[in-house]
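so im writing up the methods section and need the Putative repeat protein (TIGR04138 family) record in one place, dumping it here so i stop losing it
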Amino acid sequence: MDGAVLAEPIMERLRKRNPAYNETAYLFLLAALHFTIERAGEARHITGRELAEGCRDLAMERFGLMARSVLEFWGIRSTRDLGEIVFALVECGVLVKQDGDCVHDFEDVFCFCEAFENNYPWCAPRELQT
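--- predicted struct ---
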């Protein structure tokens, strides 16, 4: 690898690789990875599905009803975007992957509309008063 590339700050490399994502998206994903590992109760490999679900749960915990809006502001519109961010971090040497890991592990893990709007815990349908 070129020494100039190694000297370039990681966030700059991430921005160049995929400018669709806000810098905060990468930091959030790393926080979600930590959250997911803590929830697992042990340091171990986290699957794409587990990490996507951890991102969802952390976003709901931190941002409540605004979770989907916050993620979309950062460029995250689907679980596939989470995979793109993970593999950008792998490419920059921030994260490591196992042989079987791929970006497709993150495809269609859940629907953002369902997770953050239709099935949001506080949005349970109420019975109408008659």
